[in-house]
Each structure stands twice: as C-alpha cells, then as structure tokens.
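Q: How would the structure tokens look for this protein?
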Amino acid sequence: MNIDWIAIAAAAAASWIFGALWYGVFARRWTAAAGLPGGRADQGADKRATIIALIVSLTAEFVMALILAGVIAHTAKKGVTIASGVLVGAICWLGFVITTLATNYAYLKTRLSLVLIDGGHWLCALAIQGAVLGALL
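A: Here is the predicted structure in token form.
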C-alpha cells in the first residue's frame, strides 16, 4: 500500500477539529461525568500540560488515521469510497474502541454518560476519518 500522507494528515486534522467541537459542546457534562472538581477540565492545569495534551491527541489522531487507512485499503474489495471508509471506521470503533472504553469505565465505576460522551466522540472521529480517507485515497 502506498501511503498518502496528505490524506492521512487531512483525516487526522478533521477528526481532531471535530473533537475540539464535540468536547466544547459536552464540556460541562463530560467534566461532571469524569468527576473533575468544579466541573472544569482545565482547572488547575498549567499551559504546558494543556499543550502536551493537545500534541498527544493530535499525534494519536494521526496514528489512528494511518492505521485506519491501511485497514480500509486492505478491506475495500470494490474500491475505496466514502461509504466504505465510514463503514470500516464504525466497525473498528465497535470492535476495539467502545469495547475498551466500556471495560475500562466499568472497572473505574464511572458514569454511563462518560462512556456515551467519549464513545460518541470516537465513533464520529473514526467515521470522519473514514470519510476523509475514503474520499482522498
């Protein structure tokens, strides 16, 4: 498989921007579900920690897009399309992401709303990456 770095970077950027919007909308609910004091995710965090978190999340989105591109390329029997990209992203979410979140959060005894907010984010992020990769690969 030839790696299309521009498609991967575009998919990573799109899902990262989506994440900022998603957690902007769900910030209060997410921090409450996570049990953060005062309902604020950034309370007490220094700018360096925030920058590191942003870099880690963008890097993770890039790795996710790279791996998803490989899975899409290896499973698309009728060619890579937006629909096949979204489908593969959703299947990866179902098989790997939500199962991991549900397991981890069950042992942590977190609220169901945290699973739903984070799980919803990752479903949309993978669907967005799949759509972008399907369009560009």
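The chain has one domain: 5-136.

The chain has a mean pLDDT of 93.

Upvote if useful.
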